[in-house]
Amino acid sequence: MERPARLNKNIAIAIIVLFHAVGLFGLMMPAFQSSFLRIVPFHLLLMFVVILLSHDSPNAKFISFALIVYLLGFIAEWVGVHKNWIFGNYNYGKTLGVKLWDIPLTIGLNWFMLVYAAGVTMQYSTLKNKWLRIILGSILLVLLDFLIEPVAMRFDYWQWLDNIVPLKNYLGWFAVGALMLFLFEQFKFKKQIWVAPLLLAVQFLFFLILANTDVAM
């Protein structure tokens, strides 16, 4: 059975940049917000496919890693929502799409993409110590979540009790991110092209702009 060919780097970059730019425009325009919010799950799915096809030889090892991270992310969110143990007291809204046990099915995809992107970004660092790569990658994820939170509450990705994001959330993000990045290191993927790091950078810019823009719902 032939392995799927890697997606052309320029095409992958164009898809990531174009769809985030269009999404940013749509969410910043009140007349289009409701329509663009309805396609958020499909946007996440598209980005997942781009990352999947951009990996060099997406073989059984890579698929196994993606499935493990997806399941860990889903389980962490189930515990978070139903037990309030990891992140704090929050619940998911409608924006992220179809739910199973009150958890959007797309949330595992999001964990995979962000962790994979952070892991590949750390491949490009000069850090030789894997523990330092794990720590720095986890800090990147926490910084991104800091930008995501106000946007998520505004657009009903999820809601926090009393609209207050607890410190526990960021500690939880660090811990879960570190565990997943440890797994990334254990799989010892060879150095990948920088499509995934570009996605991470675009996500930072996307949520930075939305978090600092007064967008009415």
Tell me briefly what this model is.
The protein contains eight helices and four strands. The protein has helices at 9-28, 33-38, 40-54, 60-83, 107-123, 130-154, 167-187, 195-211, and strands spanning 90-92, 99-100, 103-104, 158-160.
Model description:
It is a single chain. The protein has 217 residues and is mainly alpha-helical. The protein has one domain (9-211). It has helices spanning 9-28, 33-38, 40-54, 60-83, 107-123, 130-154, 167-187, 195-211; strands spanning 90-92, 99-100, 103-104, 158-160. The strands form two sheets. It has a two-stranded antiparallel sheet. It has a two-stranded antiparallel ribbon with strand order 2-3. The N and C termini lie far apart (49 Å).
How are the SSEs placed, and which strands pair?
Elements: H1 9-28, H2 33-38, H3 40-54, H4 60-83, E1 90-92, E2 99-100, E3 103-104, H5 107-123, H6 130-154, E4 158-160, H7 167-187, H8 195-211
Antiparallel strand pairs: 1-4, 2-3
Question: What's the average pLDDT?
Answer: 90
Please count the helical segments: 8
Shape: globular
Tally of individual domains: 1
- Cα-atom Rg, whole angstroms? 17 Å
* Termini gap: 49 Å
Q: What is the H/E order?
A: HHHHEEEHHEHH
Which spans of ≥5 residues are poorly predicted at pLDDT below 50? none
| Main sheet properties | 2 strands, antiparallel
Strand elements, count: 4
Strand content range:
under 5%
Oligomer: single chain
The side-by-side strand order for the widest beta sheet comes to: 1-4
The structural class is mainly alpha
Give the fraction of residues assigned to helices. Answer: 55-70%
